Here is the input.
Amino acid sequence: MSVDGWNTVLVLGGIRSGKSEFAESLVTDAPVVRYVATAPEGDPEDTEWATRLAAHRARRPGSWTTEETTEDPRRLADVLESAEPNEMLLVDDLGGWVTVLLDPDHQPADDLATIAELAEAIRGCAARVVLVSPEVGLSLVPTTPLGRAFTDALGAANRAVADACDAVVLVVAGQPVWLKSAATATAAATATEPAAPAAVTAPPAAATAPVVASLADTEPTPEVQLPDVLTHTPPAIPTQEPGNAWAAPTMALPMVSTGLVIQPGMELPMPDEYAGPQAVDRLTTLDVPGAGLGVLDRVVGFAAATQGTPTPAPWGSVRVLLLHGDHAGGAAAGTVAGESARRAAQARAGQGALARLAAESGASLQVVDTPASAPIEDQPALAPEQVESALRYGWRLAEQAADAGVQLLVLGACGAGTEAAAAAVLAATAGAEPPAVLGRVITDSGEIDDAAWMIRCAAVRDALHRTRRSSRGAKDILAELGGGDVAVATGVLLGATARRVPVLLDGPVGLAAGMVSRDLAGQARHWCLLADHGGHPAVRLAADVLGLTPLLDLRMDLGEGANALVALPLLRSVLALSAALPVHPSLAGTDDTDPAADEPESTDPSYADPDLTEPDSTEPDFAEPEPAGPGPASTGADEQPATGWRAG
Here is the structure.
């Protein structure tokens, strides 16, 4: 989650001001939330305090995990330092933390040093963090030594944490007032470092509004314009009002008051069954030499069906969704720790192969953190609640893209263990043998690591054995084997189908999501296009099952999403060519209803008017009539119906 570019935010407010509810609203749609509770339990006989704590616990969704730090105030810094990039932490609140810090059991202690450690931990935290704290000191100075110590310590903590956070918001009577935003921080940094490039951010109009930051290239290639990089910003949950655009483009989506219900057998739209064949037939009439477009005529048919017209246009607005989520255990054998996080950070910064190719194609790039997956050989990859949340989140990502006018989604992934997870999904859905669909493990030095490959095979085998009696329903497969990235990818495919947005697949994660989506909505595969199989055996098998024939066989391995972007300019050129070329002259035809077509035209230069010609002239007229225009039922030369293969 990143609003106006921040990853850490401090939410201040008075008692009963609504600060906790506002903080919780910032993380509602995050796939993974770890709630860090700092307040002590208090006196067992204090029922009012127990009621407050119970109200806080009741508001937390079942998918959240809770961690207590009341035993040791220094543990909060350790929790922040050890957090993973894909996590979302909600710390509530610093008032309770200061209370524990001042407890006689933890004294003597250097309170200011502990506060400084907390601030440093926030600055270096890889996860996204929302911290809640009471704003004190607006009234009289307490008359007791303990009261003064508390307000002084909490005031010092608030100042240090506010300085470390990217954004600060004060909640007054339930109304948020932003005190510090990423734009403010950027301006301050620019004042001290004039040469450093700054990200362009918008003012914080709403905590959940998506923000696009155009990043300047830091490498010495100013002629390359980097793509708009959209960070992980969950869109707002739509309201259930009549005529809501959320449900309008779909056919029969089950909705409840808590949001979208994704269940097997959903009726989603299908591409136009007539436009695709008409577009392919139209290609046979165009003025092109030789056999025409070859296998790329499938691109024209796919675009025509998804756009609902026999003359499809090249995709203008394209968005790349890069899903980042790691799989623990044997599935990730042979991968370097932290490598996937580095790739995701590189893409966010507008660097690396994927960002460069997106820039060349004029596509926007959105990096999406997905829930981390547990070792599938030992336990389910995700909890059922996490699967539901991930599916809905992927759907909303597609909704967000459709609302922004995106005409084509490119689905990719970067994460440790993704190939093994995809192999497990294929084994469960298509009966594949894991060794047959697991590609060789290539190290950073370019060597083949067969030991790591065998560990991955064993992990998938053990996972299938563990789940041999489990249901093979779509959500069960995602929970037991697929994990966070496959679940979010499945939601993206379903959401894109509902909004009639085609998806260009690239890599095992997208194909595994396509296999899972068959049980939820079989229409989804008809909105998918596979540019290249990339040499992945899992992609080959899944594409064969789904009926997706790869258009190319380049055998590149630039990472998921990058291979598709290499092919994108070619696909656009084919669509542009098919839309612009005229009908071959031999198939243009004439219009018998035009009287001028029946009037022969003399080839004699002295010919001026047919009425002046001598009636007894015996010289024949050999002038060909001018080709007539299209008939009344035609829409022009480019719209002529197919009449068979062109002669000559």
